[in-house]
Each structure stands twice: as C-alpha cells, then as structure tokens.
C-alpha cells in the first residue's frame, strides 16, 4: 500500500496529535507549521514552514496530497475556494468551514435550520448607533448581554460580557465599539477585540447575544465522511475558566436521555445541512429544570477539539484518528467508550516554571493517568498538555474523586504540588 498524503494547515498540538494517529494508520501527514520548532513540527517529518494565508506555501503543501484539512479555522477562504475549484479535496469545504470561523454566518445557518440558540443580532454603524442597538436588544432580552467579534475569537478572546448600559460608555466595551466603528470607516486596528480579527480581516460589525443562564456546558462531537457516514461520541460535560476549556467528563454525568438525543440531533443536522467533512464539535449551553433540559448552541468547531481529547484514552476511536479517516473518506471507527467515565483535565502553564522532576512525580502520583504533553515552551496560562483518567465510577462522588486525582496530576505538572 502506498501511504496517502494528507495536508494539514496549522502546526499546534492538534496537528501534533493527528500525527500520532497518522503514524499508526500509515498516513503521510504533511503539516504547514508556523515555526520549525513548534508543537507539530517536533514530531512531523514533512513539516514545511509557512502561513495559512501564503498562497505559494499552501499550494506547495497540497501538491500530491489526497486531501487538505486544518488544525484551526483561521484560513483564507478565497484561497481555499480557488484550490477546491482546481480539484483539491478541501475538507471541510470552505462553505462549511465558514460556519466555524464566522459567528454571524453560523447564527444565520442555525436559524435557517430551526435549531435552538441564544437570541442574537448584528450591530453596526458608528459607536453611538451601536450603543443604541445594544440597548434596544437588552430592552428585549435583558442585561447582561454578550458581545462577540464575528471572526477571530478563540479561548475566550473576542468575547465580552456587558453588564449594563453604562458599561457601554467607558472601559473595554466602549473601546470595542469605537474600534469597530473606526474599522467600518476604513481605519482598521489589530487584535481580536472590536476592530480587529485574527485570521479574518477587520471587524466592521459585532454580534450581540443574550446571556443564557446555563446550569452547565455540554459538547457533542461527531465525524462525517464525504460519503455521508456519521459517527457520534457520547455527549460530554465541559468546564470553562476564562473562556478556556479546563475539564471535561465523558459521558456527561446525569444528563437527561432526551437532552442527549437532542444534542446528537443538533450535531447531525448541522453536519448534514452544511455538508461537513471531518470532526465537528458543537458547544452547547444546558439550562436544566424539573420540566426538562433546554439546549442552546454556543459555538462550532470543524476540527479535533479540546472537548474531544478524552477520546484518546476513553473511546475505541480517538477524535484524531477519526478526523483522518473522515477527511480521507475511509470507514469511520467505533465511538464506544472504553470505560464508564473518562475525565480530562487541561494542563495550563502555572505562575512559574515547573521543576525538572515534575513529570516523574506526576507519573508516580497516578500510574493510571494518561499524560499528553505538547512540547511547548512554558508560559503562564498556555495550553501545555492534558491528562486523561478513566474510571468505573458513575455516581457524583465517584466522578468527583476521579476529577481530584486528575487535578492532582496536573498540579504537579504545573509545579504547584
């Protein structure tokens, strides 16, 4: 068998973990990395250096490749559409990827599909006009409201909670409005706040959403191949801190079976209507009440996702192996859990450099823990790895005990224990 070449744009930890599975399947991964010593570049033999918006670099990347896929959504849509028109299998296609990289496009598509999501509106104009639009929205839906940049947000960037009308007149919200108005007038700024957007051009309008009073956050992950086959993992519970997913529990403990079925229906509907290829993650707000659970779509990702890291050790097929299968149109693997419960805890850089013996002590602390490190230089708050721990416990106390054991491993890695 000749090894198919799969081209990947992006050289972070997600591409690194794709490479681990590509090796097992005999797939030749060619990854466009940002730096020659980045996370994916350390483990990928074929790792040219270049930017996602460098047409020459991307064209060289896809030469001889069976398909092109991505580690992140911050792509050049025009370039991808051109490649697709020239016959390059772009997976997911630019039209589908747009829903993960443009929140306005996503909100419109979700409305068109009749799926549940927070009330929302696009706001644009000069700063004073946008203030008036936000106040009118809040009059209908209440304070606080959530402001988002349509493109470029990640890990909490490009998202701002606004508590009251007075918060629009000064502080960060006012800065966003002024910057967005300036960008609309042709004076773009940089960054992911109002007025600038990572990988998406200038922000010339904003998204305002109602703040859903959720009781917990969930995510449903699935994979879809071009032929239409779909495989879905169990719905998981995620815990966010400062916009970053810090923990997940799979399956989501105590989730109403009807809500689990609805979450799967939401994921399948989006995948089929948008013709998604590869892994799709749908982040959800859950409002749980005695009469039942209401779900609201928060955001989408069309790639392996933090909420699916548990699948590496807690499911028969990991999200990384499944993504490779899906974009190459290979039969999908089973998504059956390998244990009643799997807990994932992210390892973020602590306040100081961890000691040299941190890994050895972490391994000794919990021999059953699966530690995944990304090869990144330490920086406070940076994603440096994660820990998976499987268990037979399904009761709240038992799951909490597993969480604490996984947290203890991460605390040692961070140099805090």
Task: Walk me through the structure.
It is a single chain. With about 425 residues, this protein is an alpha+beta fold. The chain has three domains: about 5-90, Rossmann fold (3-Layer(aba) Sandwich), CATH 3.40.50.20; about 120-210; about 215-415, ATP-grasp fold, B domain (D-amino Acid Aminotransferase, Chain A, domain 1, 2-Layer Sandwich), CATH 3.30.470. The chain has twelve helices and 16 strands. The strands form three sheets. Strands 8, 9, 10, 11, 12, 13, 14, 15 and 16 form a nine-stranded antiparallel beta sheet that branches. A four-stranded antiparallel beta sheet has the order 4-7-5-6, sandwiched between helices. Strand 8 and strand 9 (about 230) form a beta hairpin. Helix 6 packs across helix 7 (about 170-185) and helix 11 (about 360-365) runs antiparallel to helix 12. The longest helix has 18 residues, at about 395-415.
Question: What are the secondary-structure elements, in order, as H or E?
Answer: EHEHEHHHEHEEHEEEEEHEEHHEHEEH
Mean pLDDT: 94
| Top CATH class of the largest domain | Alpha Beta
Structural class: alpha+beta
How large is the radius of gyration? 21 Å
**Secondary-structure arrangement, i.e. CATH architecture of the largest domain:** 2-Layer Sandwich
Strand content: 15-25%
- Parts with pLDDT < 50 across at least 5 consecutive residues: 194-200
The CATH superfamily title of the largest domain: ATP-grasp fold, B domain
CATH topology category name of the largest domain? D-amino Acid Aminotransferase, Chain A, domain 1
Number of strands: 16
Distance between the termini: 49 Å
Largest sheet: 9 strands, antiparallel
What is the helix fraction of residues, given as a range? Answer: 25-40%
How many domain regions? 3
Overall, the morphology is: globular
Q: How many helical elements?
A: 12
GO cellular component, one term: cytosol
GO molecular function: 5-(carboxyamino)imidazole ribonucleotide synthase activity; ATP binding; metal ion binding; phosphoribosylaminoimidazole carboxylase activity
Pathway: Purine metabolism; IMP biosynthesis via de novo pathway; 5-amino-1-(5-phospho-D-ribosyl)imidazole-4-carboxylate from 5-amino-1-(5-phospho-D-ribosyl)imidazole (N5-CAIR route): step 1/2
GO biological process, one term: 'de novo' IMP biosynthetic process
């Amino acid at each position: 068998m000749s090894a198919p070449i799969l081209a990947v744009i992006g050289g972070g930890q997600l591409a690194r973990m794709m490479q681990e599975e590509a090796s097992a399947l005999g797939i030749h991964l060619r990854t466009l990395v940002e730096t020659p010593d980045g996370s994916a570049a350390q483990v990928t033999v074929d790792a040219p250096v270049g930017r996602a918006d460098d047409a020459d670099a991307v064209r060289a990347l896809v030469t001889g490749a069976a398909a092109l896929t991505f580690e992140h959504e911050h792509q050049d849509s025009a370039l991808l559409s051109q490649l697709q028109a020239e016959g390059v299998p772009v997976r997911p296609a630019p039209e589908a990827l747009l829903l993960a990289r443009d929140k306005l496009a996503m909100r419109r598509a979700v409305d068109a599909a009749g799926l549940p999501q927070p009330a929302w509106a696009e706001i644009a104009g000069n700063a004073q006009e946008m203030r008036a639009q936000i106040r009118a929205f809040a009059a209908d839906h209440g304070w606080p409201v959530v402001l988002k940049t349509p493109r470029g947000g990640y890990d909490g960037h490009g998202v701002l909670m606004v508590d009251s009308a007075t918060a629009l007149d000064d502080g960060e919200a006012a800065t966003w409005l002024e910057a967005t108005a300036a960008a609309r007038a042709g004076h773009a700024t940089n960054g992911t706040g109002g007025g600038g957007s990572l990988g998406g051009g200038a922000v010339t309008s904003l998204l305002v959403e109602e703040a859903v009073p959720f009781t917990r956050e969930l995510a449903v992950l699935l994979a879809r191949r071009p032929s239409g086959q779909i495989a879905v993992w169990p719905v998981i519970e995620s815990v966010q801190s400062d916009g970053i997913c810090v923990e997940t529990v799979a399956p989501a403990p105590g989730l109403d079976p009807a809500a689990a079925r609805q979450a799967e229906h939401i994921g399948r509907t989006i995948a089929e209507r948008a013709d998604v290829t590869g892994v799709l993650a749908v982040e959800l707000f859950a409002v749980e009440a005695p009469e039942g659970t209401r779900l609201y779509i928060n955001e989408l990702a069309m790639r392996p996702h933090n909420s699916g890291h548990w699948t590496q050790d807690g499911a028969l097929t990991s999200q990384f192996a499944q993504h490779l299968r899906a974009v190459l149109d290979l039969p999908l693997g089973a998504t059956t859990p390998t244990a009643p419960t799997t807990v994932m805890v992210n390892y973020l850089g602590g306040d100081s450099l961890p000691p040299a013996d941190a890994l050895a002590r972490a391994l000794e602390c919990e021999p059953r823990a699966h530690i995944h490190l990304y090869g990144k230089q330490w920086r406070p708050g940076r994603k440096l790895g994660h820990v998976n721990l499987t268990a037979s416990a399904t009761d709240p106390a038992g799951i909490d005990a597993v969480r604490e054991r996984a947290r203890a491993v991460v605390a040692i890695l961070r140099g805090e224990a």
